[in-house]
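Q: Got a minute? One more chain.
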Amino acid sequence: MQAPPFRLARTADASRADDSAGTRLRAADACCAPPSAAQLAGSKRRTRLAELDPHLHCSVIGTCLSTHELRKLVPRFTDLDRQQASDLEIHHAAVELAIAGGAGGKALHKALDERYAGAIRRFEQARDEEAVLALWNESLKNGDIPPAYWALMTHPYATMPVRQAAFGELHMLSHLVGAANRADIRRLVALEEENAALRDKIERQQSRLHEISTQRDAVTAQLSEQIVKLTAQASRQGSNDTAGLADEVKALQEKLAEADQRLALHTSRREAAEQRALQEQETAEALRESRDQALDLLKTVQAECHALERATLDALDRPDARRAGLADVAGKRVVYVGGRPGSNAALKALVASAGGELVVHDGGVEDRKGLLAAALPGADLVVFPVDCIDHDSMNMLKRVCERHQVDYHPLRTASVASFIDLFSRLQSDRSAAQNAAASARPPSAFCLRHG
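A: Always. Here it is, folded:
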């Protein structure tokens, strides 16, 4: 990005130059001034993609549209090869189409509106800048950033300061995520190197201690032999040399005690080094587990995004909603327990458009729990998000489903992506089972005796 999506503050010299320019500069600033509250109240139309500040198009395209979707859309309006073009070329072409407007810009705007229709309807409740920022902050805490970012950028009450605030938070969030990943990788590499160095040091210390112990045993044996010889010599020499021999024996005993002290010191150092190595190993193992959990979560989120993206692309290519990843719900009654009001409404519309029926129960927040037990026996499938349901409702839901032999499936989150990913996996499992049954060969009717 060559320049930020906002005007820079002017210095005092520039202000004095503006005063000398007079009416000409004031007239030029009038076209760039942000709209007033009265103008916003009078205009109810959402902002088009081509009408946004050109510096905002890069963040909108990169955040709200995936590379796979851009590869299907951008080559229709440019000369780029869908298979040979790089991701950067596809992104640049999409940004240029958004800036230029025309058919390409309209197609991008339509794709964004269709993909984030639920977020747009939720942001339509906001009637001023504070309400728009409140919805944006709520989505930022929940991690549902792309839908909220598009809904905010095109909202009728979104002024330039509001868009600047959202752009700044998104920009800093990308820095924080990249810095955190790089810091974790650097720390893991440093810990592994330190762990290897400690292992080498422990091996060297153990080898050194073994040598010291061997030397100490040899010195002890030698001193013991000398003590025995000196004691025998003292008994032969008589009482005259008794004092001298006693002093020599004492000196030898002091040397032996000093050797024992050195051995104890090296032993304590070895034990401390082993404890530090164990602590570093535990820390490295904890970091590996944390990394594995993050990778598993990333794979799950990618699978959900891929399912949602595939369903969205199928819906765009084939207007029939029954083929948009929800073919299994046609003619079925699905009970959805828990979730959030905004995503529940979107799920209900998706299932209805696919020819099914979605019965929503909030798990006991506003609806009575007795209605939940009465709605489950007639259901074909029960779905509940584990992050938006209490433990009491979830346990009762499992017991009732097992009693009436109704299939139930937990969802990772209450998002639309998790819901579509579940039915995509169910459809894939059913297709795999059908293919396995079709490929199974029938028993041979050939008889070894009669032919």
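A: The two ends are 80 Å apart (CA to CA).
Q: Perfect, thanks.
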